[in-house]
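anyone else get weird line breaks when pasting these?? whatever heres mine. first is seq + tokens for prot A
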Amino acid sequence: MKSLKIIISFIAFGITLAGCEKDFLQRSPLDEVEDSAFFTDPEHLKTYVNQFYNSTIFTRYANHGNDFDSDNQIRINIDQRLEGTRVISSTGSIPFANVRSINYFFDNYKRVEANHPLSAYKQYLGEAYFFRAVIYFNLLQDYGDIPWITTELNSESPDLYKPRDPRNIVADNIIAQLDSAAKYLMEDKTSGAGRINKWMALLMQSRVALYEGTWEKYHNGTDFGVANPQPTKYFNKAVEAAEQIMTSNLYDIYTTSSPSTDYKDLFALRDYSTNKEVMFWKKYDNNLSRGSSAFVNDRNFRMETPSGNTITKQLADSYLAIDGKPITGNPNFLGYSTLKLEGQNRDPRFFQTIASPDDVWKIAAGTPNKFWKEVYDKRNTTGDYNAPTGYLIVKGYNPNMIYHVQQFEETPSILYRYAEVLLNYAEAKAELGTINQDDIDKTIKKLRDRVGMPNLILTNITPDPKWDFPTLSPIINEVRRERRVELALEGFRLPDILRWAAADELIFEKRPKGFLASQHPTNTTPVDNEGFLDPYKNTIPNGYGFKLDRDYLNSIPVSERVLNPALTQNPGW
């Protein structure tokens, strides 16, 4: 009974930690609630790390997608980072609460060694290494240089006043943590809805290494760069980590040999326990969690209407023609006069991401099916039907009304999928300059095969006069295009723009556009000189004001620098 009380108290303690946003320097010492009997049993370790299975560590696919902070999607309100209107916060803090919580684990977990072999608890040790890596990776992306701290601090700890560690040192430490995670975590594929495994740690390692490698390469010589950059080291690590997953033969691309629906269906399935592509996913069960604020889930219900959330023309134009070539000057491209023609003869992912007017919108027993044309026809008649660019979102939506429940849907969400592994591998190889046709065949070809698109042939890449990055090689442009299209709306686009130092090409002084306004006779949205919807025309006539010398990183709050004068401010702030 005493042991049960201890576990319950630490569950409550873990929930408190997970929900707390106060600065770690201002909180009471964790040892005030520590019980010497805790951390003596593997179940105690499991209970403690459970708190990190949260939405901060594992971001689910949001209603209408996760790319609204990029050039892929827009809402009614303009993103402050893209607009360049953020200011330094006078209060607030760097979110170190999770760092302190995970360090508490490492300071105390060895008590379990007295009565239990490593095999009894190594899974939870591996999870702790994984969580510390992800927590710090989030900080690295937001702030760049960050103090690397691996033990719980008290009021007298010298590290309270340490300066920021260089970002490449932090990245090296993150990668090392993931090496340890992969060493201890189970190798079983599992159902993907429970606990993490070795392969998820390696996926995260490929993501971190690719991020840091491209950051160091493309920010080199700027205020955001590092001394003595070593991008090649990180690209090799990204390849190595991804290759381990690929050669495990545990995962593959989901397909039922239905290229016109497989990509869309992947994001609307009800269960991923046997899905070979989905490595980790969030399962919802009303019998277990109904009523919990963490359970709120109504994606299908919300996606019935756009409610101001739409895809940009910039993303729509990225989809190749059905022959695998760019749409510019391509006879397969039928123009913009109607959305139906615009998406015809295109990469099938176009109409598996953007709703076609002919697609089924609602399926309800006893009533005729409804189609997305009805939603397009109602565009901008009410707030629910507000669609700034016109391109409506279907990725992640299931039209079956039995699955549309306000607040408490049991709609699962993909967290990690194998497609990212393949794209990380291909990009790292392209950046190394060592990519060959065999590399493409085992990565990009798999993604294109799913939707019936021609393979990318390294020696026969058709030049695109509208490549986003005309100064870079054709293969890097096409790998980046493939990444954009395959991972659209999944939250990768802003991190990609930041690590590529690409805001000058993609964001600065640009405005997101929509489809041809003449398709909608009662259109009330501003229109550009070519007749395309231009929703921000009057709001930001000069385009996004993203500050190229500042907005690649967040600012350090004033209050943090008062507490620790050794913390320097990020460039441009």
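and prot B, same format (seq, then tokens)
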Amino acid sequence: MADAVAISQPALVVKNRGLLIGAIMLAMVMQVLDTTIANVALPHMRAALSASQDEVSWVLTSYIVAAAIATPLSGWLADRLGRRNLLLIGVAGFTAASLLCGLATSLPMMVGFRILQGVFGATLAPLAQAIMMDVTPREKMGQSMAIFGLGVMVAPIVGPTLGGVLTENFDWRWVFLVNLPVGILAFVALWFNMPREAIKIRRFDFFGFAMLAIAVASTQMIFDRGSSAGWFESAEIWIYLGLAISGVWAFIVHCWTAESPFVDLRMFTDRNFTSGLFFIFMIGITTFSGLALLPPLLQGLMGYSVIDTGILMAPRGLGTMVSMLFVGRLVGRVDARILVISGIAISAWSLWYMTGFDLRMDGGPIMISGFFQGIGLGLVFVPLNTLAFATIAPQLRVDATAFFSLVRNVGQGVGISLVTTVLAQMMQVNQAELATRITLDSPVVRDFPGVLQGATGAIQSLGGLVMQQAAMLGYLDDFWLMAIVTVASAPLVLLLRKPKGASAKVDLAHAAGE
């Protein structure tokens, strides 16, 4: 049966498809890894760069904001420079900026070089996804998206572990310098394997880009600065919100009426793509929330080292890899929407399982829940990408993948800010509630040595235990919230539809014959 079904011709034919995909993945993983690899090194950077706690956070924020603003440029730059040239410039610029970050001697230098990293690296993920779809026959699109998903989903999970190993065994500067050999290898591989394509002269819509950049940057700043600024009690956050709403409104109106808009709004008329944007936003909220919560929980409350924390979180990446090894083939055999629902169910179960964590447990439940979360993410991400881009026009793919990456990143920012805010608020609520139970006739006070005698050390120890338990309950509240958000995303599957027509029949026939 397999021989009777012809493989369709990909949109871009290359000599060494495997080598090209490997080179693209290498470049993309390098960039995605840097979204999390520097997190664990912040305390060391703070000391070396003479920065305060708030100031050193700009090492992360500057990179995220710069990448968010530059990502929508991917489509126009790809047309104007050619995808080959843009990839090479992006890899070379990102690698050079990584070297400069590793050599930085002050906070302004580090922030400036991180902005360069974000700008040069912003185009790598959208280009990687678009090119991988173009060089892959439709029948094998699921496998291609599984490979892409490995980089997008596993690299940020591995980031804190790798960053911890490099920081503890070498120096914090190596979280940036490690990009040098990877970047050079990716550049050489792309130089020899990425074909040249025709350059399209496309007028740059400065106003459209400016409005989108203002909207994206303001939105990102709301979530980056919200917690420390007091959210909507602060005039700063209200200004960001006003800029974000105004920017989005002006961008939509302009692109709808302009002759040559910055973004072709036709891509939003594709039902699967638009539905996929809503879905990936929800997935973005839950994907990185756990990564933001677990390190402080494991290190701050449970006393694990950076290395041990990385080991306990490693099964999450392992689960994602295992899932994606199989899901690429399953996409052709099973309705992708069933796979997405299955992934949501597994992810929701793993988050519910985490609501049973306690301070006295060993690392087993952490590794089990992480492994199944990884499986769930793999089951969701690959079919979702396959469905979202199944019917999008090839000429719109770069713009579409750029927006897909942008919405996913915004979702991640929303998720991290959401769980951080809920954690802080619930810790206060839980502490106040626990304090009301600590009375002179309560068993915990009677059995705690020295408290009834008024010993200062005993009272302080009891107070510390109350704060510790309140913090743990706050983390459990966050796990409940993430589980609820995951379940709430399930109805969005109803908006996705299976591709119809000849291409779908070829997909099913080919899959059945394998």
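btw re prot B: Residues 208 and 254 are 7 Å apart (CA to CA). Residues 397-437 form the longest helix (41 residues).
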